[in-house]
Amino acid sequence: MSLEYVGLKEINGPLIALDGVKDTAFEEMVDIALDDGTHRTGRVIQIEGEKAIIQVFEGTQSISLTNTHTHFQGRPMEIALSKEVLGRIFDGVGRPIDGLGEIFPEQRRDINGNPINPVSRIYPRNYIRTGISSIDALMTLIRGQKLPIFSGSGMPHNELAVQIVRQSQIAAEEGSEFAIVFAAMGVKNDVADYFRRSFEESGVLQRVVMFLNLSNDPIIERILTPRCALTVAEYLAFEKDMHILVVMTDMTSYAEALREFSSSKGEIPGRKGFPGYLYSDLASLYERAGMIKGRKGSVTQIPVLTMPNDDITHPIPDLTGYITEGQIVLDRNLDQTGIYPPVGILPSLSRLMKDGIGEGYTRGDHSAVSNQLFASYAKVQDARSLASVIGEEELSAVDKKYLEFGRKFEKFFVGQSANENRAIDYTLDLGWKLLSLLPKEELDRVDSKLLDKYYKPESAEDLKGE
């Protein structure tokens, strides 16, 4: 039996309250008919006995306490799913905004999803190539992994996200398809246009599903956007056997919307005003990545978040770091020197890369090159610290070699064009070329067989003059 309730008990910001409500459920969708004949959509966010608190998507302006008709739909929010979603652009709650009409669904699915049973998970193997040397070689993205990008205000994280979407590929496998789900939350109109234009001009839009939530859209839509995106990703991965990369930017906008939403409900705030359940809420999104036994597809996540005041201990990056399997940290000092992408090598890591690289995946020497580049670049920082105290002229010959290596490494390996798509073999060969700038005895993370094969000081000659 479907009941319709007339009138409201109270209106508080974006929330409305009804009394005498029976048999409703948390997250149930609500249709709200105003006295002028227009309709709005809401969602039950709190139940106290027979009192229901409803979040109105479009806001509560012009809603009457006496003449509003509220109809509970008896179902949670669902999104229409079919393979037709590829190449389409949606708003934050899954409504088409590209002028191509509605989706004809094969099925509809609850956007809140279900956590993947840990017993049915498969350990992630194999990698996704981004064409960006610093990521592919040193913090490799593995299928089924959660690898966030920690950025800061004004840094080129949007450009990096676009480049990853444009260039990402998987190794050619029989019957495997690759697609990207891109979710932008709280972005300005010009940034949304940049994303859309970049994907259209590069010709990758046909393998991308875009969700765009603008900064002037309701905050409730911002909270639903990543859930809609992940539901589409799960459908394509586990129903259509595709490998899906989900890029979500900016998770800071999402968390701030969650804080505003929590405050409007009168909940007791936690660290920096964020709700105490921020950790579990983020985990409910991040843990929807992975691979499942008996299914060929995978869901891989790259959440992008801007750290307020570049503070990596802020609750959003802090909690994200606990849940995810590594991070890519953008460095403001590198950015200010004009290096793109300004990936900070030492604070970045991929905890799963050791099992998705090497023989059969990338190349047999990948692990050794990665370890040696990390170790050598760490010594560069020591040499720079010493040079700042005693001056570069007073350094030993080896320390001067490290300074030269550091400059070339940042310029040629970390730095690359926004349109440059590097093959993994090119990246690893470039790593060996840079390591050949250093004395052979300094390369203590590589065994002698690999050194004999790849260490060639003459190959680094073309780097010395630049």
From TrEMBL:
SUPFAM superfamilies: P-loop containing nucleoside triphosphate hydrolases. Residues 355-455 form the ATP synthase A/B type C-terminal domain. One of its GO terms (molecular function) is ATP binding. Signal peptide: none annotated. The keyword Hydrolase does not apply. One of its GO terms (biological process) is vacuolar acidification. InterPro entries: ATP-synt_VA_C, ATPase_F1/V1/A1_a/bsu_N, ATPase_F1/V1/A1_a/bsu_nucl-bd, P-loop_NTPase, V-ATPase_su_B/beta. Keywords: ATP synthesis, Hydrogen ion transport, Ion transport, Transport. Residues 10-64 form the ATPase F1/V1/A1 complex alpha/beta subunit N-terminal domain. Residues 131-350 form the ATPase F1/V1/A1 complex alpha/beta subunit nucleotide-binding domain. It holds the Pfam family ATP-synt_ab. Produces ATP from ADP in the presence of a proton gradient across the membrane. The V-type beta chain is a regulatory subunit. Belongs to the ATPase alpha/beta chains family. HAMAP family: ATP_synth_B_arch. PANTHER family: V-TYPE PROTON ATPASE SUBUNIT B. This is V-type ATP synthase beta chain. It comes from Ethanoligenens harbinense (strain DSM 18485 / JCM 12961 / CGMCC 1.5033 / YUAN-3).
